[in-house]
Amino acid sequence: MALRSRLAISIAAGVLAAAAAATPAVADDEWGSQNGGSSGESQGGDGGGGDWGGSGGDWSQGGNQSQQFTRGRVTASSLLLRSAPNRGSQVIRVVHQGDIVRIFCKTQGESVQGNRFWYLLADGTWAWGSARFIETRHTPRWC
Q1: Stretch 39-55: mean pLDDT
Q2: 96 near 112, Cβ under 8 Å?
Q3: Which domains can be identified in the chain, with CATH numbers?
Q4: pTM for the complete prediction?
């Protein structure tokens, strides 16, 4: 594993530990009701026409980078989530088309169909998913 990947993972793990200790749980877990496209990095596939549904809450506020997590929707039929931001790393778990994921941050990694961005996901396990197959309403922060 490249030194840059190890450094990004180490930094992300430290930030996550500090955030988990200081941040309360988010009560409203619904998508905003406005139609939305994908972020510039995600280049999502067939994203389902932008119907994000739900009541919105704090998540529907435009571009607020102070939010703890950004949410995304998986556009691939199945997406392998990995231990590092590259296709050669260990598979942690699999998510499926339409699944909603919580994105902690983004970094650059191995290119997947021309997209070098990978998202660190925090849905029970911490794993990396290629941004090529995750549609977002807001651009995640950098790791």
Answers
A1: 40
A2: no
A3: 1-19+42-48+66-143 (2.30.30.40)
A4: 0.58
